[in-house]
Amino acid sequence: MSPDMLFNLLSKGLLQTLHMVAVAGIVGSIIGVPMGVFLATSGKGELFPAPMTNRILGLVVNAARSTPFIILVVAIIPFTRLVAGTSIGTNAAIVPLTVATVPFIARLVEAAIREVDKGLIEAARAMGATPLQIVTKVLLAEAKPGITLALTLTLVSLIGYSAMVGAVGGGGLGDLGIRYGYQRFMPDVMLVVVLVLIVLVQLVQSAGDRLARGFDKRTRKN
Fold this sequence. Notes:
mainly alpha
């Protein structure tokens, strides 16, 4: 394969991967972050007590998280066709990526919020803050570094998942690696794809870590 052809294929695959990761990450965050907040605040005796709903939602989230991604992709093909009009291609791949992302984000956000000092919540209650004010002014503000790291981990995982959907015609770098690196026995193409994915993950992780440190009050004090 000529360098020009390889460059064109890599450019196209990289753009498709970035498109899938960006859309799935944004949509997944829009749904997953509020879901995580609800899971962290809706237990018995918490800000928005709804223990039965909390338990049911927790079971659904656990079931979705425990399903291997490649199996999830195949299992929801009818839903993918309903949403995207097809089960093949980049736009179709966004559907299972988003479905896998939502419960992942929800649990990470829940964990980040539960790490907030309970004394801050009690202090806010004593000052007359409403539950919604406590969530927005205390919990989310204090958990911002943890949530940032959670979203960073999600994007890194999405990059890996986006490579996996290449096995089912999802496009992106994974599809390039499988079609040329594996099926056509071009190990140099596979090597380049792996290197690009590694660099992409490193860039995302570094940016997320730097952003989280900026949100961390302890780091700013030092």
